[in-house]
Amino acid sequence: MIRFTALPTAEVRALQSGAPDAYGHAPERTISDGAGNPCRHCLQQIPKGAGMLILAHRPFPALQPYAETGPIFLCADPCERGGGTEIPAALASPEYLIKGYNAEDRIVYGTGRIVPTEQIPTAAETILAREDIAYVHVRSARNNCYQARVERG
User: How far is CA 97 from the centre of its chain?
Assistant: First the structure.
């Protein structure tokens, strides 16, 4: 069994309060147009007209060659942390890039692939069955933006 996990609440609350992003900048505040703005904390689409943040995020604990940084969206106002065993509503595109990482937060070559959204759970379980995999990232298949983390349930 697998579990989708969102960004930690403490980290998100700091960003919602104006803490600097991965590049040291304050998150940009804007209004969601309701199309393709997935919050990486509640794992829902940010509704049209709602405030949202755009910021640079690095979902890794330290800088190293495999620590990719990229843009993400967050609800501007506090939201409940999402996650669980079901595919989150934030994953609304037809397909995503998934790839496995080891305990040192390094990409494990040969695990990356683009899969249809409905196949993410099965594909992630297959990757996580390997002993050398600590977790899986779900990323945009077109823009490589970080979406969520998948862990053993």
Answer: 11
Q: Which of 50, 83, 116 is the last residue of a domain?
A: 83
66 in the same domain as 33: yes
Of the candidates 87, 95, 109, the one whose C-alpha atom is nearest the C-alpha of residue 139 is 95
Give the residue ranges of DSSP H helices in the chain.
Answer: 9-16, 120-128
Q: What is the pTM of this model?
A: 0.95
> For residue 152, what are the contacts with CB-CB under 8 A and spacing of at least 6?
1, 2, 3, 128
Given a cut of 90, is residue 35 above it in pLDDT?
A: no
Residues 6 or more apart whose Cβ sits within 8 Å of residue 20: 26
Shared domain check, 38 and 14: yes
At 102-126, the pLDDT tens digits run 999 999 999 999 999 999 999 999 9
The residue among 83, 117, 136 that closes a domain is 83
